[in-house]
Design brief:
The structure holds 2 protein chains of 2 kinds. By secondary structure, chain A is mostly helical. Chain A has one domain. In chain A, 83% of the residues lie in helices and 4% in strands. In chain A, the strands form 2 sheets. In chain A, strands 1-2 form a two-stranded antiparallel sheet. A two-stranded antiparallel ribbon of chain A has the order 3-4. In chain A, 32% of the residues are buried. By secondary structure, chain B is mainly alpha-helical. Chain B has 2 domains: 301 residues; 186 residues. Chain B is 89% helix and 0% strand. In chain B, helix 3 packs antiparallel against helix 12 and helix 4 packs antiparallel against helix 5. The longest helix of chain B is centred in the last third of the chain and has 127 residues. The chains are: A mainly alpha, B mainly alpha. At the A-B interface, helix 2 and helix 4 of A face helix 4, helix 5, helix 7, helix 9 and helix 11 of B.
């Protein structure tokens, strides 16, 4: 067992080795106890007691380390949950921002659609005015043709325009003027429609630019949401892992505590026996009692350590990072 | 089982302890009851059973508070609860073992006392005091842990209530926004309808003005033509004049302006004058023929003079009609100017209507965009409202759960406080020491009494241990699988109703 700046190392195999050494000393003492004199027995019993004390001290050290680790993990768990909450609230806020952006974008798209619809209508109007201009031109041409004797009359009758039957120069000239005026009017209206179209095109362009900006914002928000979701997922995994590690460490600590308690009882018993040696009241079953108890504890220890301790390694990674618990091979 | 055979000093195993606890012997029960009442203010079995259910409640509270600040407090409780359960489990195991160990020591002390080896007996009893002291320390730790959990539960409860309040306020704000948007939506819809009507109206005005402008323009031109070609028209006769009227076929007066009415009147006058002129011309021609014939026939000078005079009168009449026609020509010229003015007025109106229509259409587009925005915002707000209502429901469950948890931890604290007090009492062996020193006869009976005390502690710890045994695995399962954000939703949906019902049923029972 050794410590590092970044924390305490609890290494299953190291702990087991140290424990085994102590157990080995314990059994040597117990087996030797039978053959000794009262004084020697007392000496050995005292030694035995100190072996138990060492075992208890070893267990307590590891238990304290595990408790410290557990406390640290609890803090990390709390921090992770706080970070998860913070990220979730950020996610909620970003979702709200996205909703507002969606609404704004919908409004802009709607406006753009309506502008384009109006532009389409205006295009129809422009086409109509252009056609009016062509028609006025045609009528002017017809009127000019009417200057040719009888042409207008005949053509007028054919085309159902009896006014063309008045073959007076002035009147024909008047019709020419009328057509010209009509053309001018259509041109004026065409101009108005074109001006309105231009305004709308400008508006449409401005809208397109705003839509583009909003879409860029939307895309950035979507990216942020993706990142936040990924952070939440990773925090969830982290929380789960800390929960697992806490459980592992908790169980490890309980195993050690249980062993420590049994060692303590045994140590207490030994304390009593040491005193009883002085009183000449040493129990006949003392040696077998101690031996059986020690064996029982050892069995439990081996069994429990196999289940949790031996196969578990607490790895302290680089500074500032959380330890990772892995199974020892 | 006879009372002797169930003497506390005969207890060696946990089974013996349980047998003693379950004994129907009134004296035994009385003894157990007396000690229990002395140290324990809570129902031990209930307190421990409740503690075993806390895991589920905390897991639900964790799910309920997920994504809220109070969640960190709940997870802290959950982690400390796991520690409490493990430490409680270790403690109860240790206490059962310790009690059995102490009873064994008491048996030995009793034996030594029977042999009058009082000092040795005291040593055995003193060993039990050490066990009791370590148990007292362990109990004290558990009291502290339970008290901490109790405090943490209170804090978490306050935090969850605060979160619930925040969510409720958020929901209130959302409801206000929803109502505002709904009102805005209705107002916008009405505005859009209104603007649509205005656009129609302006379009109609624009059309009418254009039509009127076109009419005025045509009138102006025709009036101009007529005024210029008035004499040739005269030669053509009334049919030609009628033909010149560009709106002669309309036959309606609804679209006629004062100028067009004037135009028609003038045209009618021209027609009349024209007809008169033609008639006068014909009469003059006839008189001229008569005059020629009279002159050729060498007729009566008086008759010739009369004819000449009539021709003269007719010529005067003709001149007067021509003058009138000239006046009509002048009137037509004035009318032309009036038509031109009228045309300009209508053109201006047309332009104004077009501009107004464009402005209204722009306003209409804005209103449509605002409406669309409102509708989408409303959808989002409804979604948010739905999420918040679920969140509030989850927090409600969490608040109820944490309230329950707090009580459980308080009872657990009281339980360990009782154990601590009992251990304290057991570690105090001053009376036994005094009796032993005086080699008192009551010493042995005091040892039996103390053994009873250990028996009761042991059997209480067996009860606790069996209640906690299953919990350890349960809390490990919860901690090993802390629900993720998505799992939380499912969990709370499944558990919320059930747990709410359980809590309410529990509350009613307690009430």
């Amino acid at each position: 067992m050794h410590s590092q700046e970044v924390g305490i190392v609890v290494h299953g195999t190291h702990f087991l080795k140290a424990s085994n050494e102590l157990y080995s000393a314990l059994f040597t003492n117990i087996s030797a106890l039978e053959k000794k004199t009262k004084k020697e027995k007392k000496f050995l019993a005292v030694n035995l007691r100190s072996t138990f004390q060492s075992l208890i001290a070893l267990n307590q050290t590891v238990s304290k380390q595990l408790s410290a680790k557990s406390d640290q993990l609890k803090e990390e768990l709390k921090t992770s949950v706080e970070e998860h909450t913070h990220t979730s609230q950020n996610l909620k806020k970003t979702k709200e921002e996205k909703k507002i952006l969606t609404a704004e974008l919908s409004g802009l798209n709607e406006k753009s659609q309506k502008v384009n619809d109006t532009i389409k209508e205006l295009k129809k109007t422009i086409t109509r005015h252009q056609s009016d201009i062509v028609e006025a031109d045609q009528r002017r041409l017809n009127a000019a043709l009417d200057l040719i004797p009888l042409y207008g009359l005949i053509d007028g009758i054919i085309k159902g325009d009896p006014r063309r039957g008045i073959p007076f120069f002035s009147q024909v000239n008047g019709i020419i003027s009328l057509c010209k005026k009509e053309k001018e009017e259509s041109e004026r209206r065409l101009g108005m429609a074109k001006k309105e179209t231009k305004n709308l095109n400008d508006e449409s362009q401005a809208l397109a630019s705003r839509i583009d900006k909003s879409e860029q914002k939307m895309s950035a928000t979507a990216k942020k949401l993706e990142e936040l979701n990924a952070t939440i997922l990773s925090k969830d995994l982290e929380i789960k892992q800390i929960g697992k590690d806490l459980t592992l460490i908790g169980n490890l600590n309980i195993s050690l505590k249980n062993i420590t308690v049994r060692h303590r009882f045994l140590q207490g018993d030994l304390d009593l026996r040491v005193e009883m040696i002085d009183d000449g009241e040493l129990d006949d079953n003392f040696i077998s009692d101690i031996f059986n108890a020690a064996q029982s504890i050892h069995r439990t220890f081996i069994q429990e350590s196999r289940e949790s301790l031996v196969f578990t390694k607490v790895e302290w990674l680089t500074e500032g990072k959380r330890p990772r618990l892995t199974q020892e091979s | 089982m006879a009372l002797q055979s169930i003497s506390p000093l005969s207890v060696v195993t946990t089974e013996n302890l349980q047998l003693l606890a379950n004994s129907s012997e009134p004296l035994v029960q009385k003894q157990i009851k007396a000690i229990e009442t002395l140290f324990y203010n809570v129902d031990v079995t209930k307190a421990m059973n409740d503690l075993s259910n806390v895991g589920t409640l905390l897991a639900t509270a964790y799910a309920g508070t997920k994504n809220h600040p109070s969640c960190a407090k709940v997870v802290d409780i959950l982690a400390n609860y796991q520690t409490l359960i493990k430490n409680s489990s270790a403690a109860t195991t240790m206490f059962v073992g310790g009690s059995l160990e102490a009873i064994k020591m008491h048996k030995k002390a009793h034996d030594k006392a029977s042999e009058k080896k009082y000092s040795l007996a005291i040593k055995f009893i003193a060993q039990c005091a050490t066990i009791a002291k370590s148990m007292e320390n362990a109990s004290e730790e558990l009291v502290k842990e339970s008290a901490l959990l109790c405090d943490q539960s209170k804090e978490a409860l306050i935090a969850a209530i605060s979160d619930e309040q925040v969510s409720t306020n958020d929901r209130k704000r959302i409801h206000e926004e929803i109502n505002k948007l709904k009102a805005q939506e209705a107002s916008l819809q009405s505005k859009i309808t209104d603007l649509g009507n205005q656009v129609k109206e302006e379009r109609e005005k624009e059309k009418t003005a254009a039509k009127k402008a076109d009419r005025a323009q045509t009138y102006a031109l025709v009036t101009g033509i007529i005024s210029t070609v008035l004499s040739p028209i005269t030669l053509l006769g009334t049919a030609a004049v009628k033909l010149l009227n560009p709106f002669s076929n309309e036959g309606t007066h609804t679209q006629q302006t004062s100028s067009s009415i004037m135009f028609n009147k003038l045209l009618a006058q021209i027609q009349t004058r024209n007809e008169e002129l033609v008639k006068i011309g014909e009469e003059i021609d006839l008189k001229k023929i008569q005059l020629e014939q009279e002159k050729l026939n060498g007729g009566d000078q008086t008759k010739i003079k009369t004819i000449e005079s009539e021709i003269q009168t007719l010529n005067i009449k003709k001149e007067s009609r021509t003058k009138l026609l000239k006046e009509c020509e002048l009137a037509l010229q004035k009318l032309q100017a009036s038509f031109e003015k009228e045309q300009n007025v209508y053109l201006k109106r047309e332009e104004e209507a077009a501009l107004k229509r464009a402005v209204i259409q722009k306003e209409e587009r804005e209103a449509n965009a605002d409406l669309k925005k409102s509708v989408v915002l409303l959808e989002g707000l409804n979604e948010g409202d739905d999420e918040l209502s679920k969140s509030i429901a989850s927090l409600e469950v969490a608040v109820k759960t944490l309230g329950k948890v707090k009580t459980v931890f308080e009872n657990v604290r009281l339980f360990w406080k009782g154990v601590e007090a009992q251990c304290q009492s057991l570690s105090n062996i001053e009376v036994l020491k005094l009796l032993g020193d005086d080699e008192d006869d009551d010493f042995s009976s005091e040892i039996v009494n103390a053994a009873w005390n250990w028996c009761v502690l042991g059997q209480i710890c067996i009860k606790s241990s069996s209640a906690i045994a299953g919990v350890d695995k349960k809390v490990d399962d919860i901690m090993k699988n802390l629900p993720s954000a998505s799992e939380t939703k499912q969990l709370i949906q499944q558990a919320a109703q059930q747990i709410k019902l359980q809590i309410e049923l529990g509350d009613n029972k307690e009430g």
